[in-house]
Fold this protein.
Amino acid sequence: MQHTTLSRAACLELLAATDIARVLISVRCLPAALPARMTLHDNSRLLLASSEEPVIVAAQRGEVLAVQIDGLEGDGTTWSVIASGIARPGKVMTTLPHPLVQALSRGARLIEVPVTVVAGERVG
């Protein structure tokens, strides 16, 4: 099996192509992966819609959040991307993608994470 490290540009392209992710966070000193709706904005920051209290509190505190996505291609190749940055509460914009708008209308909060560090790998 071949492991290939993805470039920053390739990672950003994959982040831009998805709307659901896992937020990796420590909850009471234990690792957790919590779901969130997501979009990549301006190729430099992730906008998350989450109703998970630990994620919302982490953003309010200005903590580092990691966001992970992965996928399976038609030929059986898998890939994974993780991006991280210091989170903060987001400001609602007039042009958010529909999945984020839906999540926000159901009570989720908007969170912004700059893509400070991003890494990815393709296996297959």
Observations:
- The first helix runs from residue 8 to 16.
- The domain at 3-123 is CATH 2.30.110.10 (Pnp Oxidase; Chain A).
- The radius of gyration is 14 Å.
